[in-house]
Amino acid sequence: MNSNHSPEKLAVFIAQTLDGYIAGLDNDIGFLDKYYQENEDYGYSRFMHDVDAIIIGRKTFDKLQSFQMQHYYEGKPCYVITHTPRTNFQNFIFYSQDIQQLYNLMCDKYKRKFYIDGGAETIASFHKLGLIDSFTISILPEFLGNGIKLFPPSGLSSDQLNLEYCKQFDNGLIQLKYLTKPKN
Ligand SMILES: NC(=O)c1ccc[n+]([C@@H]2O[C@H](COP(=O)([O-])OP(=O)(O)OC[C@H]3O[C@@H](n4cnc5c(N)ncnc54)[C@H](OP(=O)(O)O)[C@@H]3O)[C@@H](O)[C@H]2O)c1
């Protein structure tokens, strides 16, 4: 393990519906819209302040592209995981090799946290290797009934999930943070 490894190196920060979906059919994330508030970002800015680099899956990248925004992730390097190599642009770096190698490379390159924005498949790719240190999950009081679940039906280990905090917001949103390794 790299000497830069902090207790919380690789962090998930994501929103899901009460029934467990991060997106609906056709990657629709419209259910998030009514939770955007001018004076409340649910800890996102504070979280991003400590983040050096971001990791996303190609499908999440495609979704971001559909928004045609000028800047993504405050210009921080964003690694897009895909089986199909592409040319890097702006702050996007496409990565098609071994996931563990990417993690090692990022540990060498960046001193602080990495943030996996999603989606589910990408989170599972890192979680299966035991690389995720924390899950911060905002649970929205919505039922979607179908779409993309945050977690696969089975196969992820729940050996060590230690609750760091649970916060509730006036609009019914609840945010949970679990650490996957014991606190020192
Ligand atoms: N609610 C939220 O907070 C939130 C946050 C993030 C994303 N989302 C939503 O989640 C949806 C996408 O989630 P998703 O789970 O379907 O897809 P995803 O994880 O974003 O992307 C999946 C793709 O990533 C690549 N990939 C994943 N693991 C890989 C590995 N081990 N090696 C190589 N490539 C790998 C593959 O790309 P290739 O097919 O190119 O090989 C795969 O098809 C989008 O609708 C997005 O908007 C929601």
Please describe the topology of this protein.
Blueprint: E1 10-17, E2 21-23, H1 44-49, E3 51-57, H2 58-66, E4 78-81, E5 92-95, H3 99-109, E6 113-118, H4 120-127, E7 134-140, E8 148-149, E9 162-168, E10 174-179
Parallel strand pairs: 1-6, 1-7, 3-4, 3-6, 4-5
Antiparallel strand pairs: 2-8, 7-10, 9-10
The structure holds NADP nicotinamide-adenine-dinucleotide phosphate (NAP).
Residues 14-15, 22-23, 27, 29, 57-60, 63, 81-84, 99, 117-122, 125, 148 line the site of NADP nicotinamide-adenine-dinucleotide phosphate (NAP).
If you had to describe this structure to a student in words, what would you say it looks like?
The protein is an alpha/beta fold and 184 residues long. The protein has a single domain (10-21, 41-179), classed as Dihydrofolate Reductase, subunit A. It has helices spanning 44-49, 58-66, 99-109, 120-127; strands at 10-17, 21-23, 51-57, 78-81, 92-95, 113-118, 134-140, 148-149, 162-168, 174-179. The strands form two sheets. Strands 5-4-3-6-1-7-10-9 form an eight-stranded mixed β-sheet. It has a two-stranded antiparallel sheet with strand order 2-8. The longest helix is centred in the middle third of the chain and has 11 residues, at 99-109. The protein is globular. It starts with 9 loop residues before the first strand and ends in a 5-residue tail after the last strand. The structure holds NADP nicotinamide-adenine-dinucleotide phosphate. Residues 14-15, 22-23, 27, 29, 57-60, 63, 81-84, 99, 117-122, 125, 148 line the site of NADP nicotinamide-adenine-dinucleotide phosphate.
